[in-house]
Amino acid sequence: EIVDAWDSASNDVLEQVVETLFFYDLTDVELPLVMGLAESYYWVDTEHVQIKLRENVTFHDGTPFDADAAKWNLDRLNYLINATGTSDEEAQTKSLWSFPDGVTPIINNTVSDGLFNITITLNGAYAPFINTLSYINSGMISPTFHEDDAESFVPLEGDLCGTGPFLYDSFTPDVEVRMSRWDGYWMKDTYGNPNVANFPSVIYAIYVDANTAHQAFLSGAIDANAMASDQNLATYRTRDDIYVYDFTEETDKPSLVYQYMGVNNNKYNETWRTAFAFAVNYSYVIDVLRLGNAFRSYTAISPGYGAAYNASVPTDPRAVPDQGNVVTARETIQSMGFGLTLDVNDDEDWIDQAESAPFKTVRYTYNLGNTFREDLYVAVTEWLKLIGCATEDDGVQWDQFLDYLYDFGGGTPDQGFDHLELYAIGWAPDYLEPYNMLDPLFNPASGSNSAQVDDAILSGLMEDALIETDQNARLEIYKHIQSYMATKGFNHIPLYHSKVIGLHRGDIYGVPYNAMGALRIFPMYRGPYRE
After folding, report:
1. pTM
2. Percent of the chain beyond pLDDT 70?
3. E strands within 279-370?
4. Helical packing angle, 270-279 and 371-385, nearest 10°
5. What pLDDT score does 271 carry?
6. CA within 13 Å, CB half, 414
7. Gap between the Cα atoms of 144 and 147, Å rounded
8. Which residue, 2, 41, 124, 128, is most buried by CB atoms nearer than 10 A?
């Protein structure tokens, strides 16, 4: 179901079949916004946007795409996030389409203003709204084909009818998704001729573990491996039939995905969080645990965001250096009255303290079977010893970890968010707007704010960004937020953004590598193997 989609694997499939009003130019490393099923837009004021729709577009069933179809889809989205309060179902993506209170829907109503014009009225100023419309939840499906789905989710075991370059043929759970080229696709080439996908069919294979995908890739059973592990990259580089493209090395644009250690802000104040952050050896995380296939993170905002990234943060003397600074961490501990008799330059003094009478015993929660997080626990144990603290091993199964991360069981002592103290996790954006990284992780009302961040200064800056419609001014607010996060708030312990590495068979061309990790099969084609 497009309105309920909130994971990269589902989106990779859906975005080949269903299109949104806006998207991004994946061939440009700066990822500029481009028109999709919209032709242009105009803000009448901060709460009303007029959108001119693309003409001569049809859905796969032959239904014309027009203003009524766009309105039907946006009304359906609002219904399925339960904006009306009358839906029997509520999409898990409700928060993406709500104001920071998690209740008020962003969209008030959509009106057809003619055959190819709509006006969307918002329930208040929401500056990232056009970027929000680039997310698959607002994708357009045929109101004719899906007439029975206006108030219900579309089961993907059945059919899906969009306007995209591929037809949705079948889905076999835990096995594969099959798609085929749609020869009636609306896009034209520079000469005005039909521009359809190069591949007549596509199979999206589903694997339950990385090793199975690895073996399938080596054998030639699949053309690309989206589950590649760091340990296998060296093998791939030796193969003549496999192409490895180091996108980040070429562009300095790492992934937008943010990997971090969360610290329970309710249990550990800013001073404790600062001490933990300075105790971490970030170079070890990147060079040893990630085998060099990562880019140091200072905040939730990756350099992949381009103009929104604050490049001055890494050089700010108040930020944590790459190898941490255990002396600063110890001085921070002493500022709270702990270890005043210990020598800040003597490791043994602090290790002995941790092993005999630790200042704190910190619970580290992680999901068993995740090699990186298991290895990180071992490292964290040693780093915390260096500041007189001990760790509690809290490895759990994935389902239990998710319960903690999303506050399932919240309100029950030691369950949900309250169970967590220190943990490692990652977060990916849904669309190309820094606010989409900030609101879920740092908004006190967010169901994804597992660190229980409730920082008045940070919240105030986020509110400023939400209503600032001037793009340049909003970018400056985002840079201010990054500076605050890296030098003052320490609400998280940022670890890294993965390097983007293109990985596919050597006879595949036209791959739109990008920091978003977005997949577009349409422009790809098969040619001779690279020499």
Report:
1. 0.91
2. 100
3. 294-296, 361-367
4. 110
5. 97
6. 3
7. 5
8. 2
